[in-house]
Amino acid sequence: MPAQGKKSPQKDTFISHLIELRDRLLRSILAVLVVFLMAAPFANTLYEYFAAPLMAALPAGNTMISTEPHGPFFVPFKFAFAVAVAAAIPYLLYQLWAFVAPGLYVNEKRLVIPLLVSSTALFYFGIAFAYYLVFPIIFTFFASTAPEGVAVMTDINAYLSFALKLFFAFGIAFEVPIATVLLVKAGVTTPQSLAQKRPYIIVGAFVVGMLLTPPDIFSQTMLAVPVWVLFEIGVVFSKRIKVAGPEAADDDDEPAAGGSSTEDFVDLDEHQMESELSSAEKEFDKL
Fold it and tell me: How far apart are CA 162 and CA 130, in angstroms?
């Protein structure tokens, strides 16, 4: 029991972890703020580029509108902040990695870095897929289905909310290969089991597409089909990995149970040398 007035080692370790977590969070917030300050002067330009797919789909003479007095000022800055968060994702993930890395095994560290890089790239690829392929199709469809006499003029704040939801949905959906590999690596399932459940995965992809996208068959299909294809890619890659288990961690960090360590061999050599010396002394006494 620790002496009165002294902190226990466990408490010191816990406090040090909290201090490090605070520092990592402050660095992450500071990084987002720095990127936001760099993007803020170009907020209007960024929003114009962001709204380009909708503007191209609107009928001739129609424009976007703002139904709130402060909308033209605040909405571009909201999007600039969203851009700052997206641009800082690699640094945010690095801070997360630096915080948890000391508690990981060597084989886990080798796996985490490729997963972080690939998951970030897939998230960005999902956003690009939505912006360059999905947006032009669904906005053209929406604009063409407007009843006669209805002017399609979308509010800039409503468009921001709608588009960011789609960005997030496609970014998360494109993480399917990472989720597949992690499930197989953790031993939760096998590639063969996933292949047998393919029909359910396809139905689930369309259900997810229905929930995360607007209520039209085009955007639903354009989310479900990539999810299915990415699932197949994840199954292919999962066939090439080894299933994690206690043996894997033991192999990298400590000797396996029942095995002989280097210290055991050293002790064995010392015992052999002592026995040989005692035998030599006995022979010398006989002479």
Answer: 12
